[in-house]
Amino acid sequence: MPERDLLMIPGPVMCHPAVLRALSRPVMGHVTPEFINIFGETLERLQEVLKGEKSQAVVVAGSGTLAMDMTAASLLEPGDKVVVLNTGVFGDRFAAICERYGAEITTLQAELGDVVPSEEMEKALQQGKYKLLTVTHVDTSTGVIMDIEAVARLAAKHGVLSVVDGICAAAGAEVRFDEWGIDVYVTASQKALGVPPGLAILMVGSRALTAYEARRTPVTNYFADLGNWLPIMRAYQGRERAYFATPAVNLICALHVSLELILAEGLENCYRRHELFSQAFKAGMTALDLQLVPVNLQVAAPTLTAIYYPDGVDADLLTKIRERGVTVTGGIHPQIRDRYFRVGHMGAITANDLLATIGAIEGALHASYYEFDLGAGLAAAQERLAGA
Ligand SMILES: *Cc1c(COP(=O)(O)O)cnc(C)c1O
Questions:
Q1: DSSP letters for 131-187
Q2: Residue of 134, 168, 342 to mutate, ligand 1, most atoms within 8 A of C-beta
Q3: pLDDT of 343-362, one tens digit each?
Q4: Does an H or E element contain 203, and which?
Q5: pTM here?
Q6: In the predicted model, what is the mean pLDDT of the chain?
Q7: In this structure, how many other beta carbons lie within 10 angstroms of the beta carbon of residue 266?
Q8: Which ligand 1 atom is nearest residue 67's CA?
Q9: What is the distance between the alpha carbons of residues 71 and 98, in angstroms, rounded to a whole number?
């Protein structure tokens, strides 16, 4: 793949050159003063980005699924009741993980492309004695975003722990961890945080810590036991040496840089840019008469777009887009897997990357004999980007 091609999938994403340079620096010892300081600052920057200044950030080598696994392993015991708000494939995943640790799952299933209605949540929480609720901030299979502030506040009102899968959202969609009363927010390095894959990231609040301490049985997974990691994270933040399992030193250096870039841009600007690019991209697709998977723009995520193929076009379109120097990806939702494709527009991308992507999609559609006004998608996106 030529080095100037664009990777526009919902993770992993293209990284800022400064982030890649951090990866290639000489490997540091994980308990050297230099690295202790970098890791400590990284945890503090995560507190700033996720607005969890009163809470504990945890960074562990692994993918986002490990962060989900650590949460379930550490907070659940056999027989605990969990309600899963399911807006796509990653709701299925959280249900499967919780079930593995012996929890009883109630799933509130959203209609395809829509969110879970708040009346349904309210009703379920009133009826059941749930210990924990999971919600996917942005479901990467449908491109749907949930209002996690409302969900977290509702869960807190009913004394239920709220666990948010923010893997495809953190740094692309706003989160105010402490203020909204979220109990655990999980994410990963390779999506809007703009770092190569390999880091599982959690923000853990005080109620979740209390629930962990109140366990009656030991955690049945050694590596995923939060109790093994919390003292290590606290030590790094206190600029002290500590060891449980070797951290992914260079990836943490890369995250350290990426978080610095995000904070230098300013969180509000960063969210606004994601929202603007998302609106411009969606306007471009709509101008080509393509239909989006989310049922309306209010529930559509700012970090990616899921688009149905038009009649007569199939996954062969992806190859044609790729021949034009842009990688996008196919569907993963079992109900519509072969009928749609997904484009990620998060992290350190520019308006030029976005326009080049729309141009490649138009070229590929044209080569697929789909009829439309060539340039209509680009024009609609340009207008949106120009604030028209
Ligand atoms: C990507 C993603 C995951 C899985 O993360 P991995 O890093 O692939 O393990 C889970 N949930 C959501 C919402 C995601 O976007």
A1: SEEEEESEETTTTEE--HHHHHHHHHHTT-EEEEE-TTTBTTB---HHHHT-SEEEE
A2: 168
A3: 999 999 999 999 999 999 99
A4: strand 199-204
A5: 0.98
A6: 98
A7: 11
A8: 9
A9: 9
